[in-house]
Amino acid sequence: MKKTPESSAAVDLRDVHKIYGTGPDPVAALDGVSLRIDPGEFVAITGTSGSGKSTLMHLVGCLDTPTSGRVSVAGEDISTAGSDRLARLRNRSIGFVFQAFNLLPRLDVQGNIELPLVYAGIPRRERRQRALDAAAKVNLTDRLTHRPSQLSGGQCQRVAVARALVNDPALILADEPTGNLDTTNGADVLRLLAELHRSGRTIVLVTHDPAVAARAARVVEMRDGRIVKDTAT
Amino acid sequence: MNWLSGLLIGLREIREHKFRSFLTMLGVILGVASLLAMFALTAGIATGWRNTMQQLGGLERVGVNDKQVSLEFADLAALSPGRTLADAEALRGLPHLVSHVAPEMQTPATLSAPDGQTVSARVVGTWPDNLAVSQHEVAAGRFLTDLDLERGARVVVLGDAKVAQLWPDEYGTDADFLGRTITINDRPFSVVGVLALYQREEDRRRREAAAKGGPAPARFAMGGRRGGSGRRNMFSWKNESVIVPLSTLYHEFRSGQPETPPLVMAKLDNLNFRVRDLQRFDETLTAVQNLLRGTRRGIDDYDFDTREDWFERMETSLRSTQLSGGLIAGISLLVGGIGIANIMLASIAQRVRELGVRLAVGARRRDVFLQILAESTVIGMIGGFLGLGAGVVLLDLLGRVAPLESPPVIEPSAILISVGFATAVGVLSGLYPAWRASRLDPIAALRYE
Q1: Which of B17, B354, B359, B361 is the best mutation test for A, with the most CBs of A within 10 A?
Q2: Where are the domains positioned within chain B?
Q3: pLDDT in tens, A47-72
Q4: Least confident of A33-42, A220-229, B215-224, B225-234
Q5: Do B361 and A163 make contact, defined as CB atoms within 8 angstroms?
């Protein structure tokens, strides 16, 4: 990868368009979005449903590619990447935290945390060690052999955060991480993300809730596929 | 992510859904069971036939028979001396092609044991080679020797059934029959050998079962099944053997009568020989034909009796049995495969979200593909192994319900082929579901409810 200024950014979008549908009535989910997120930033992306923030998150999360424009994640241009390369990027550079936790019900806590390492081809013993370290960071060392169904919602989301960190990604991408949690547990998870930010990680938080967004150092507001506000708090 | 972890995931899925997995495997289990049973049954039949064939002299045994001379040569037929000892002597001149030659003369006679019974029998006079040509097995004593032949010795080798008839009270005990004297048409002969008992597999097992059930009432069955004399079967001629040297038979019972030709020109009742190398079977027959053309003075009055036709018929019928058995097994396996594919598709639909998560954390399409394929492969393989067990049980049940002529033989190759087929079914039926799963869009899969 060539080392250009944008390649030092955690995320760099340049005039990105994403258009769904090809018929007479295509929908532009993203309409010329440019956004740069530096390593170590804590950014919240807000907006109402339909504002394009989910689409933006999919691009930043390497789950999708843009119709036009350039998207770089962790220094790699993914605008035209194939599915294998996207998968590798998701595996190495991005940790996902979802609203619905998305833990695998038949794996125990350790198995869930290890999952990205399995696809990274890390040997079993090292996987175990790294999963233990990640579990310690979210304070779940005593629940390693539990299954998700035996955990509370807050604990599940902490497992998900541990899973997001385990492969030491450049970027942690949290999509409405508090949406399924009560206030206490939600605050817990936000505190965890803030801690991770303080320890130097790049966090991108997608939420429609201004109160949650307020936890971030920078808030990007979307509307109709464009960035309408980009404020540092 | 490699095959091994794929297999592990597959195993876990199966463990989580034991009953569903079992139902999924049922078709494969039945398929493999019937495949194995079919293989074992046909292998058993084939082994039985081969043994029988071997005991009857094997493929190598060829008989020289008389044949009606074709009409245009009818007036010349008398020129040929017919089947004589000269033929046999001539056959000995082909040692590289013909390994053994056994001419036979037969005569009906009355056998009498001073310490036993008097029975009638057909006495066979032959050469020592008869042992190899007819695949006799000597149970006690010895067979004829060249010396016996040379001397015209009054020695006799008896078949098992004949021993049983001559000494019914002593048969089956430890009694030694060797060295005893019997009379054949009032001339004393010394018993030098007793042949082994030949029996069909079915009879052998019945006998064994009877022996196991304590002192069987075999004594009363004398002349019945015991000694194999009562039930005529393809081995009767061997068990009923009364064998003496050819020269002895000729001199004792044939010569001295008016118009008896010299031994070498005397008509034989049978002439059998053994082909040395089956690879050169046709070559051997041609050579023998050329030879006989000389001894028969060019008259085509003989025919070869080979086991080839019989063998071919046997192979054909075995093949058709295998084909129909294979067809049934194939249909079961096909149904089993469809079952696996169906369940895998359903299981994928249930797990869209899980697959989405796997994709999100970095699974490549091929990882997902392998995972699903490994799962169906494991189902097929386990089904295969369970099917082996079911096959063994099936064979056992079959053996109980209807005792088989030949016991089934489970060959290692049959096991390999059966499990191999099951595994292949697992792989094939997983291909489409695996492809479907690997085509999932991660975004849609993550949103899937």
Answers
A1: B361
A2: 3-54+312-447, 61-306
A3: 988 898 989 999 999 999 999 999 99
A4: B215-224
A5: yes
What are all long-range contacts of B291-295, with beta carbons under 8 Å and residues at least 24 apart? Answer: B291/B90, B291/B91, B291/B93, B291/B94, B292/B64, B292/B87, B292/B90, B294/B90, B295/B81, B295/B84, B295/B86, B295/B87, B295/B90
B29: tokens are: 């289990």
B356 to chain A, any CB pair closer than 8 A? The answer is: yes
Q: Which residues of A touch B358 (CB under 8 A)?
A: 104, 115, 119
The long-range contacts involving B225-233, CB below 8 angstroms and separated by at least 24 positions, are: B226/B164, B226/B171, B226/B172, B227/B160, B227/B161, B227/B163, B227/B164, B227/B165, B227/B171, B227/B197, B228/B160, B228/B161, B228/B197, B228/B198, B228/B199, B228/B203, B229/B161, B229/B164, B229/B165, B231/B203, B233/B199, B233/B200, B233/B203
Please, what is the end-to-end C-alpha distance for chain A in angstroms? 33
Among all residues of chain A, which has the CA nearest to that of B446? A102
* Nearest CB to B361 within list A64, A90, A106: A90
> Under a CB-based contact definition with an 8 Å cutoff, are residues A86 and A78 in contact?
yes
User: What integer best gives the mean pLDDT of chain A?
Assistant: 90
> Do A204 and A192 touch, CB atoms closer than 8 A?
no
Supply the ipTM of this predicted assembly.
0.92
Q: Does domain A39-68+76-232 have CATH number 3.10.20.740?
A: no
pLDDT in tens, B272-322: 999 888 888 888 889 998 888 888 888 888 888 887 777 788 888 888 888
What percent of chain A is predicted at pLDDT more than 70?
A: 97
Residue of B106, B78, B17, B61 lying closest to B296 (CA atoms) = B78
Between chains, do A98 and B443 touch, taking CB under 8 Å as contact?
no
Instruction: For residues A210 and A46, give the distance between their C-alpha atoms in angstroms, rounded to a whole number.
Output: 7
Which among A64, A83, A115 is the nearest to B365, CB-wise?
A: A83
Enter the tokens of residue B386. Answer: 């369970």
Q: Is A115 on the interface with B (CB under 8 A)?
A: yes
DSSP state of A171: E
> Does the beta-carbon distance from A115 to B1 stay under 8 Å?
no
pLDDT under 70: residue ranges of chain B: 1-3, 6, 201-202, 205, 211-233, 256-260, 403-405
